[in-house]
Amino acid sequence: MKGVRWSLWVLAAFAALLGLFALQLSRPKNDTVESAMIGQPMPQFALPPAIEQRPGLSSADLADGTPHLVNVFASWCVPCAAEAPQLAELERRGAPIVAVAVRDRPEDLAAFFNRYGNPFSRIGADNVRTVQLLIGSSGVPETFVVDGKGVIRHQHIGEIRPEDVPDLLARLRDAKR
Amino acid sequence: MIAEFGLACLWLAASLAALQLVAASLGQRAGGETLASVVRPAAVVQALLCGVAFLMLLWVFARTDLSVLLVAENSHSEKPMIYKIAGAWGNHEGSMLLWVTIMALAGGLIALIEHRLPERTMLATLGAQAFVGLGFYAFLLFASNPFARISPAPAEGNGLNPLLQDIGLAMHPPTLYMGYVGLSIAFSFAVGALLTRNVTPDFAKVMRPWILGAWIFLTLGITAGSYWAYYELGWGGWWFWDPVENASLMPWLAATALLHSASVLASRDALRTWTIMLGVIAFSMSMIGTFLVRSGILTSVHAFAVDPTRGTFILALLAINIGGALVLFAARANTIAEGERFAPLSREGALVINNVALSAVLGIVLLGTLYPLVTEAFGVRVSVGPPYFNPVSAAFVFPMLLVLAVGPLLRWRRDRFARVKPAVIAIAAAGLVVLLAMWLIAGLALFPLLGVSLAAVVAVAAFLPLQGRSLKRLPLPVWGMAIAHFGVAVALFGMSVDTAFTVEKLSAAGVGDMVEVGPWQVRLTAVEPVAGPNWTALEGRLSASYKGGAGHMLAPQSRTFWAPPQTTSESALLTRWNGQLYTVVGGATQDGRWQLRLWWKPFVTFIWFGGLLIGLGGLLALIGRVSVDVRRRVATRRIAARRAETAR
User: Fold this and answer.
1) Same domain, yes or no, for B449 and B578?
2) Is the dihedral of CA A6, A12, A18, A20 positive or negative?
3) Is A3 a domain residue?
4) Which pLDDT does position B497 carry in this prediction?
5) Residue at A125 is within a domain
6) Residue ranges of chain B with pLDDT lower than 70?
7) Cβ contacts (< 8 Å) between B333 and chain A: which residues?
8) Which among B33, B252, B47, B29 has a CA at the least distance from the CA of B129?
9) Which chain B residues touch A108 with a CB distance below 8 Å?
10) pLDDT of residue B305
11) Do B432 and B516 fall within a single domain?
12) Domain-located, residue A52
């Protein structure tokens, strides 16, 4: 009978395993790590201008009553160039877009904007990634929807593709309420 | 038409598997001889049909028939032919067809040649084989049809993931599948033996070549996979405890334990139930591994087509096959008579310790792989990595290696310590000398220090069983054992030395700059654009000199593929007898310099040489076993012929 007893333990362990697998299968898988700052007010910060032609960006600018898109980008990042047409489209359709330029140089940024256009009304220079870390962004490009009171409502990780444009506009409209 | 023909063959093969199952079950009853006589031919024809179906898949891939969905999704007309063919199994559907095909071929082979066991047990085994096979046929036909058409056909295919466009891919999955499938045969034999309550040394002897074969393929598959990840991913590491790596390691651990316990059963008629249990566990690990990889419930660098429907299907197969076998085991285990007894200090005793340690490591790896799933069920995300796996598995592997050193010197049944004392002292002395030398001279950390010393112990001990025996008349399996155990020592040496002495240098170099890494001086002489059949690359030209010697050229690339668009690092390696220089070139920095990543990895190649030696040892043992079997067949045939002659 000893043989039977330990084989029952193996069976029980296997049943537990199956239960675990079934539970995991029944849940939708989400592998993106979201910022813990979603739903939180924007932390206090004030960034100097990244280029001469546009003012810098501070947390106070974001709590001015209108929702904004905050684009975290860099001129050295290839997907950031890929999303430029979509940002231009968003601006054309009336979305106020401000930017955080991560570890960048004015001359590189100028070249970038010459080539891809500049949809941003304000650009803060985040040379040591403080603001990027404060708002819980792990890379470039990322786009945050911030409502008129300065609360972070949504985080879009990776480049904005054409199919993401309506979604971002809808979230911006929702943020008005 | 080719795809439809392939699909038809697959359906026919599935129906033959059903016939095989029904005939094997009903043929057991009195008067079922006619039905029983159908079972072996059904298995053979099924194997042929499955083989044809797989050839049809290769054909549509070779022709890049884009009206077949699978080809359109995974191939591209501009791919080199070898990768077009390899693309047939570089995806979910094709690889499942490969699995089923190998399984059917193996089933056909045992149906054709295996006559040592009682016919009842063979019927039960072939029935079990058909049962497992049917589940996979259903999976293929209902949830992963490789021959599905797409209409209208696209003008061009999607291409194959560029990381997979490598000769490593052409060999890696088929090798692992041979291993998995060999274990499915061991599983079927175990179930057949349980059903007919016929657990004998003969059963172990019949099962052993299949375990050996599976084990050789798994060993080579893991070795090749590790080397492939090492040079293709460009991270400089050779083992990451990634869930998919663990999924191939777990069946290997179970198969290693099974191999040793089956040899106890074959030689000494002991460990009967334990061997059966391991036979069930080994294939279960293959299936659980497949499930973990294919269902997408674990996050891994190996992203296969993730599909919950398929996950559910494999989960059902898992529940039916493994659950069924375990229930059968629980019901039958106590009806199997206890085998021969043995003293704790004996060859059997050492093999039991080896088995327990291997099972413990298996449990550790399984737990570490599944732990993230358990915590995720409670809403906590964790990732388990080397800080858990390395020390915890070492705690079992190191003592096990000590037993490995002594075990082969012991006699079966019972032994006296005084008899093996001189050998044990010699082994211990070798270990201690290396331990002290490495500690005093190199000042190694604990794990590498123990690793190098144990490597010395195992290396010396591996050849001690040959002492005092005629090397010419030594059976091949004993040679195999010695070489495989020596391979363990070689691999362990490589791992320990690599861990202790690897030097890494990350730098930004301009053209003409010199970077030092370990004993190497590496100069970046140029960066040139180059183009391949479906990629363009920036190629760094490096001139590397070892301790001021002559310069060797290396050309690592940063490649950009265009179908699908993706960037990969092609590392360049320079191999010396005492290690490898590993170079990777990254992107340009802002000031016009280039990211260079260099490693000097002393004796790292020993890891894979060790793996190859282990596989070679297995191969020698397999040749030895099979040739004995063939000679026995020839002898029985000759005796039968002579009898027939004298009778006349």
Assistant:
1) no
2) negative
3) no
4) 92
5) yes
6) 158-166, 168-169, 234, 296, 298-308, 562-566, 590
7) 3-4, 7
8) B47
9) 590
10) 47
11) no
12) yes
Q: What is the DSSP letter of B163?
A: G
Same domain, B126 and B51: yes
Question: Which chain A residues are within 8 Å of B315, Cβ to Cβ?
Answer: 18, 21-22, 25
Q: Indicate whether B179 belongs to any domain.
A: yes
Please check whether residues B316 and B434 belong to one and the same domain: no
Model pTM?
Answer: 0.82
Question: Given an 8 Å threshold on Cβ–Cβ distance, is B376 in contact with A3?
Answer: no
How many Cβ atoms sit within 10 Å of the Cβ of residue B161? 17
Range of the domain at B20: 2-355
Q: Residue A105: its chain B contacts at CB < 8 A?
A: 590
Does residue B531 form part of some domain?
A: yes
Question: Considering only alpha carbons, which residue of chain A is nearest residue B324?
Answer: A11
B315 domain residue, yes or no: yes
Residue-number span of the structural domain to which A126 is assigned: 46-176
Residue in A closest to B326 by C-alpha: A11
Query: Are the C-beta atoms of residues A60 and A149 closer than 8 Å to each other?
Result: no
Contact residues on chain A for B299, CB-CB shorter than 8 A: 31
ipTM of the complex: 0.79
User: Digits of tens for pLDDT over chain A (177 positions)?
Assistant: 455 677 888 889 999 989 988 888 777 655 555 677 888 888 889 999 999 899 999 988 888 889 999 999 988 777 788 888 899 999 999 899 999 998 888 888 998 899 888 999 999 998 877 888 888 887 788 899 999 888 998 888 888 888 889 989 999 998 887
Assigned domain for A165 exists: yes
| Phi, psi (deg, nearest 5) at residue B153 | -70, 135
Residues of B with CB under 8 A from a CB of A: 273, 277, 284, 288, 291, 295-297, 299, 306, 308, 311-312, 315, 318-319, 322-323, 326-327, 329-330, 333-334, 336, 370, 373-374, 376-377, 590
- Domain count of the fold of chain A: 1
Q: For residue B113, what is the enclosing H or E element?
A: helix B92-113
- In this prediction, residue A1 carries a pLDDT of 43
Give the count of domains, chain B.
3
